[in-house]
Write a structure and sequence with these properties.
Alpha-Beta Plaits, FAD/NAD(P)-binding domain, 7-stranded mixed beta sheet
């Protein structure tokens, strides 16, 4: 076997009984340099690629060193596309994709690499949530708002800046230009470049292997359902009679409201609330839960609440929504808060209470595809639905609603559908970012989640004002929190509230994914006067008082 040849190996591994066992085996294999690692506790095996079969004994020893028992190894042939048009059958396409977002394009690109005949069905604008109405436009507007805030009130004495009233219409126009450019370059142009077909229209299934689009019946060997999700609206009395906004329509406003009321406490509510506040509106966030970002660590919720409140955003928690009404341009939200009745008035009302999967028009029952209680497509660990010809990926499954997750799932679904693979999706280590300022970024387990999973837990909580860069920036409200396994001292979770937390969290992703310990983080050289240094300082905080360290001390 030449040095560049890779063999795919299946290795029996005994003692692998859970998801954590899978991760331990995978980490052990990655440390000895094998590639394309996948471990399965259900099958008691690990698969991987190896360029030198003489190293198989070292691979087995690495697994044994983790406490598991390696068994027989089998060399597998490389998976080849097995369901292409030329293999026969009356099908129009090898893969028909419903939707045109991140998961759809990722799947199409993967599929055509196998020589598959691929089509994509889109009922609206090509591009999906991220480029059209989500990540790109909202972050553009957040950046504009942040610049406006700093111009009106910066934290440096002696630096005199001011800001004129915001011309929202012009900002929106420039945002739309950027979205159009990205739609063209990152989506439309790729259709011709990769050679798959775009079909404009709405698809609905008429049987298990056929959809109808614009009166045309289309048969496919495999389908990928990836139409995304749209804003969900809660059942609040009177809301259906009120002229309210959702995240999509809020990004189309051409005039800034004097006052904005926001129903919701998740990342969309937080980002949009701060964005409009920074642009000049008076903003009130209202929520049923006792704290914002309720699934996060309490220290994280407290830090971002303090930051937004100090900036002038009004946050109401523990609210019961009694009814909503409109009088002319004024919207009124009637609340009960801690037993007291309260009314919030605003010229604009934004509803940001989650999202719902876009499955209503698909007629999935005709395809024998199971849907869940919230209308989501139910998939197994291979992203396959109850109909084995049909896969689903992205927001329509109501998993973590991040475009990078959707893209990962789309490619994996295409491999499983077209290359004969049985590759499980692994969402154990997913970073999440709320792009407020300070930003909130988190990866894997909170302290409560770690304890619920059976870990004996160590935690380190470092206030942001212990990070020198935060002092220099005059932005001191925030926190670093590390969650570790008390027995192994492996990092289980990293949680950050700070400027550029979204950039910092990638270090946390690597620490968690590759099983780094508290000592590993301490032994690194962190660049001084960066926000990222906070991760090392938080690692030191497990056993030291960092307030008593000199600058750059480790």
């Amino acid at each position: 076997m030449t040095e560049s040849t890779r063999e795919k190996i299946r290795l029996v591994v005994s003692g692998v009984i859970c998801d954590d066992c899978e991760r331990h085996v995978s980490h052990a294999l990655q440390h000895v340099g094998v590639q394309s690692v996948s471990a399965s506790f259900r099958k008691n095996e690990a698969t991987f690629e190896l360029t030198d079969l003489n190293r198989l004994d070292a691979v087995k020893q690495a697994i044994a060193d983790t406490g598991y028992k390696p068994g027989d190894a089998t060399v597998l042939s490389e998976p080849q596309p097995s369901v292409l048009s030329e293999t026969g059958g009356n099908f129009d396409y090898d893969l028909l994709i419903i939707g045109s977002g991140g998961s759809a394009f990722s799947a199409a690109i993967q599929a055509v690499s196998y020589g598959a005949k691929v089509a994509m069905v889109e009922r609206g604008t090509v591009g999906g949530t991220c480029v059209e109405i989500g990540c790109v436009p909202s972050k553009y507007m957040l950046r504009a708002g942040e610049i406006n805030r700093l111009a009106k009130q910066n934290p440096f004495l002696g630096l005199n800046t001011d800001a004129a009233p915001v011309g929202l219409a012009e900002i929106i126009d420039r945002k739309d230009e950027l979205v159009g450019e990205l739609r063209q370059h990152k989506h439309v142009d790729l259709i011709a470049a990769y050679g798959f077909e775009l079909i404009q229209g709405e698809a609905h299934f008429i049987d298990e292997s056929t959809v109808e689009v614009n009166g045309r019946e289309i048969k496919a060997r495999n389908f990928l359902i990836s139409p995304g999700a749209s804003p969900a609206v809660p059942n609040i009395s009177g809301l259906e009679d009120v002229d309210y906004l959702v995240s999509t329509t809020a990004l189309e406003l051409k005039e800034l409201p004097k006052r904005l009321a926001v129903i919701g406490s998740g990342y969309i509510a937080m980002e949009f609330g701060q964005m409009f506040h920074n642009l000049g509106a008076e903003v009130t966030l209202m929520q049923r839960s006792a704290r914002v970002l309720k699934s996060y660590d309490p220290e994280v919720s407290e830090a971002i609440t303090t930051a937004l409140t100090d900036q002038g955003v009004n946050i109401i928690t523990n609210a019961t929504f009694n009814r909503v009404e409109q009088d002319g341009d004024i919207k009124r939200v009637y609340l009960t808060v801690n037993g007291q009745n309260q009314v919030v008035e605003a010229e604009a009302l934004l509803v940001a209470t989650g999202r719902k999967p876009n499955t209503e028009a698909l007629n999935l029952s005709a395809a024998k595809v199971e849907i869940g209680d919230h209308g989501e497509v139910v998939v197994n660990e291979y992203l396959r639905t109850s109909n084995h010809q049909i896969y689903a990926a992205g927001d329509v499954t109501m998993g973590p609603q991040f475009v990078y997750v959707a893209a990962y799932e789309g490619a994996l679904a295409a491999r499983n559908a077209l290359a004969g693979s049985e590759e499980k999706f692994d969402l154990a280590v997913i970073p999440g970012v709320t792009f407020t300022n300070p930003a909130v970024a988190t990866v894997r387990l909170t302290e409560e989640q770690a304890k619920s999973s059976g870990y004996e837990v160590l935690t380190s909580v470092l206030p942001l004002d212990a990070v020198p860069r935060a002092l220099v920036n005059r932005e001191k409200t925030g926190v670093f929190k590390l969650v570790a396994d008390a027995k192994t001292r492996n990092i289980l979770g990293v949680h950050v509230v700070a400027e550029n937390a979204g950039d910092v969290i990638y270090s946390g992703v690597l620490a968690v994914k590759f099983g780094l310990t508290v000592e590993d983080l301490r032994s690194t050289l962190a660049p001084y006067l960066t926000v990222a240094e906070g991760i090392k300082l938080a690692a030191l905080t497990f056993d030291k008082d960092v307030s008593k360290l000199s600058c750059c001390a480790g």
